[in-house]
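We treat protein structure as text, and this decision shapes the records that our systems exchange. Below, we set out a record of this kind in full and without editing:

***
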Amino acid sequence: MNWVGGSGGRAGPSSLRVFVIEDDGVLRALIVEALREIPGVDVLFYADNEVSATNWLSSHDSAWDLAVVDLHLRQGSGVGALNWCITRREDQRVVVLSSQLSQEVRRKCLALRADAVFDKASEMDDFLAYCRALAGPPPAAMPGMP
């Protein structure tokens, strides 16, 4: 579990606070970078295994707005984090972003109250569009600014 946020750990009042559960360091960096390009998104932490993910979620239960969960982790499974998120607040969202998703796995994730399920290889644009929608409209430009 590691700090990746850029705001000193305090999200702005209108930011979407994101927790990423992904064990592949290169892919995680790409996901975090893409999320940071969305106005209003603050990536708080990431975890790379089930124990770290569930520990962070349980000790920061109101600190996040969106959890992004990979199902296939080197240690444990993202399913444990998904199970923990069943008890989340009504306004918190959980998205599964994983690979090789069959229709059966998608149904199981939705049954565990995932709000959306995206395949890393073929639905990354859809995932980012979902995150942009959650973050809301970009802030209005100040007069005289492009």
Summary: Residues 2-8+15-135 form a domain with the Rossmann fold fold (CATH 3.40.50.2300).
